[in-house]
Specification:
82% of the residues lie in helices and 0% in strands. The chain contains six helices and no strands.
Length: 98
Amino acid sequence: MILFYAEQAREAAPDNAYYHHQLAALYTRSGDDAAAMQAYQVLVQRFPDNVAGLEKLARLQAAMDRPRAALATYERLLSRTGDRPKVRRQMLELHVRL
């Protein structure tokens, strides 16, 4: 039921990043990783500088065994935030999985 309202909120205010992020987080909590990934992709496509969305998307891609996609997303994240040792460590772990 809450997903329905979150989807309605995002549709009513598509220019509000908060609603996009909340919907993606709810999908993640519900265990629907595919829907969560799609929601995060919409979020970062619509709001390319949304650092939290990029980080969540990269983690989800890595968890879903999509290391190349996760690496590309981490690169986008670093291009917006500058160097971050934690992100570099996560990227190193992904390179090992390739």
